[in-house]
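pasting for the record
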Amino acid sequence: MKLIEWKCFDEIEAYTTCSYDDKYLMNMSFNGIDDQQVLKNRQQLAKTLNTDLSQMVATLQQHTTHFIEVHSNDGGRGMFSRDDALIGYDAMYTRDRHLWLWTFHADCCPVLLYCRDQKIVAAIHSGWKGTVGEIVKKVAQHLIENEHCHPQYMYAYIGPSIEQRNFEAKDDIIDLVKKMSFDTRDFYIQKEDGTYLLNSKGLIQQQLLELQVPKQNITISPYCTIENEDLFSHIVEIKVLIVILH
């Protein structure tokens, strides 16, 4: 199974699953295509990571800016089916060790946070709706204000997603980008046909910079889900970015 690792600190592990394993589709999302095979793929991933599905948790993402704290007793939720998944949350965080947090993505930006001082990890799904709604800033700000995380010790990984050169957006999205809480003019470029190229990874990074997270603490994946077709599918939400605190 192909995994892309975020190498941060020894006390956490974080990986993005690739969409293909020797040209075999490794779908990780219960989307009705072949859920029995998805379950087998998830079990294979758990085995690869020396754990099991009862120590993993997933939400049913709905492109919201809602987030939730999860605990060890949430392990297994959303892993064997969608029936008991945490519905309507696009981000999770936990202090509990040995609990893998999942976030699903196609072209959307998956984001992981690690607050080293408080030993908290978070997994965030930031599609364009979440990005303009500033979900990453909301989660990070909550951790700073309510969980006593210091921005200086907050680390972030913005995972494989669509790059600006491939992200075409129209006025409906750009109008929302312009309403974000900071100056966004540097994050979109207008083309001759009137559409725009949008830098979603940059918008997410800026949300963290606005909270005084040091730029050197933010890692941005160079992978584009459009261009790296040997690794990713950008059509459906079938891959995951996962993180665990040891």
